[in-house]
Structure formats: structure tokens, C-alpha cells
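Researcher: Quick test of sequence recovery. C-alpha cells follow.
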């Protein structure tokens, strides 16, 4: 009966692929099979020595850095991330997080991860959007990797939109101020995996990591859904 109602419902409100917008078949979830098979995956997590390994070199100590997909303008990945951030499609974050988490679990370098920390949004921004996309990615990674995620350790402090009014010199300092760590005992001597949607220059990530490594014995790895670095 439920299936019958689902079928009737989907005749009027078909579930759509977040990648291409075509109607999903019954067994498909979030992405159609075509989009799923054509994701521009980096496979960076399979190798220690790859372009992303050097993104934080000379800035902050990081164990492993990996991204699921390449980010290109006009690509399906750009569309997926846009839907995730601005169109309320938070489930795609969880879906791809879980998809990537299962792959990461096969690599010993990522299997040692103890917990996952999403990059927090400022509360004001989160209230406006209704959710933090990084947290949904963390939920999926947590399922795929089989380790918990925590939202009460890495937190935001100041709002960043004052940045535009500041000079270029001051801007970095301002980014640094936006994060803080609370409940440090939860990550002491742990391998933490910080996650976000996109990795570009790594400045936001770096600012967060600066705070995390103040905690005794912490080591940090980074994972994002997409990267602009090739
Ligand atoms: Zn599709």
C-alpha cells in the first residue's frame, strides 16, 4: 500500500536527480545512475603523494588531504554543490559523504580516523540557510567510515562578512579569529578528520586547523567533496 501511494505521489512530484535534474528511478537515490557513474572522481585518497598533499605545506601540519571530485565551472559538480548550499538539498551532502566514507574506509591511512569535525557555519548564516552543509557531509562520512562526528568541538566565533571592509593585510587575521575549539578533551590524542564542501586555497581549513592543533596530541586530516586544485 505504501508503495502504491509512493508511486502515485511520484507521478505528480517525481524525485529528481540533483546532478542532471532528470526523474529518478525507484531504486535511485539523490543521483541517477548515469550521473553517479560519471562523477569526476579524483581518487586522491588512494595515494599519499598527489597534488592536494602539498596544499598545506609550510602552513599547518596535516596528515592526509583528499577530495572526492574535481570542481569545474559549468560541470555537474558545480551544480551539485550549488544545490547542496543554496537549494536546500542537504541530503546530497550526506549521500556523497557516505559514498566517499566507504571508499576512505578501505585505505589504512584514513581507517585510523577517530572522529569527524565539520567546518562550522556562523550561527547567523546557519539560521538563514536552515542547516550547515558541512555537517550533512560529516553525517554521511560518519556512516561510511563508521566513526562519530562532532559539532561541539570546532566552533565559529565572529561573523566574517566584516572581511570586505578590512584591508587585505587584516583579512587573514580576521579569518583566523572566526574559529575556536571547545571541549578539547574530546579530541585529545585523536586523529580528527575535518570536512567541508569545497577545497580551494585552503585558507578557511588552515584557520580551523591552527586551532585544532593547539590541543595536545591531535593530528588532522582533511576531506572535501570537491577540489578546485588539479
Ligand atoms: Zn543525473
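Model:
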Amino acid at each position: 500500500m505504501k508503495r502504491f501511494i509512493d508511486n502515485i505521489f511520484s507521478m505528480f512530484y517525481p524525485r529528481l536527480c540533483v546532478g542532471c535534474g532528470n526523474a529518478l528511478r525507484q531504486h535511485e537515490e539523490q543521483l541517477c545512475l548515469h550521473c553517479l557513474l560519471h562523477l569526476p572522481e579524483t581518487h586522491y585518497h588512494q595515494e599519499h603523494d598527489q597534488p592536494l598533499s602539498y596544499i598545506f605545506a609550510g602552513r599547518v601540519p596535516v596528515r592526509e588531504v583528499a577530495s572526492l571530485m574535481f570542481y569545474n565551472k559549468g560541470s555537474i559538480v558545480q551544480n551539485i554543490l550549488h544545490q547542496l548550499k543554496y537549494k536546500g538539498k542537504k541530503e546530497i551532502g550526506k549521500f556523497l559523504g557516505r559514498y566517499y566514507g566507504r571508499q576512505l574506509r578501505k585505505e589504512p591511512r584514513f581507517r585510523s580516523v577517530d572522529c569527524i569535525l565539520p567546518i562550522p557555519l556562523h550561527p547567523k548564516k546557519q539560521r538563514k540557510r536552515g542547516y550547515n552543509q558541512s555537517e550533512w557531509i560529516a553525517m554521511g562520512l560518519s556512516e561510511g567510515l563508521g566513526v562519530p562526528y562532532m559539532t561541539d568541538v570546532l566552533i565559529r566565533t565572529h561573523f566574517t562578512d566584516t572581511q570586505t571592509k578590512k584591508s587585505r593585510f587584516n583579512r587573514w587575521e580576521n579569518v583566523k579569529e572566526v574559529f575556536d575549539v571547545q571541549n578539547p578533551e574530546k579530541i585529545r590524542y585523536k586523529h580528527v578528520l575535518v570536512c567541508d564542501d569545497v577545497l580551494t586555497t585552503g585558507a578557511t581549513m588552515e584557520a580551523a586547523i591552527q586551532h585544532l592543533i593547539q590541543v595536545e596530541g591531535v593530528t588532522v586530516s582533511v576531506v572535501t567533496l570537491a577540489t578546485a586544485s588539479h
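Residues 90-104 form the longest helix (15 residues).
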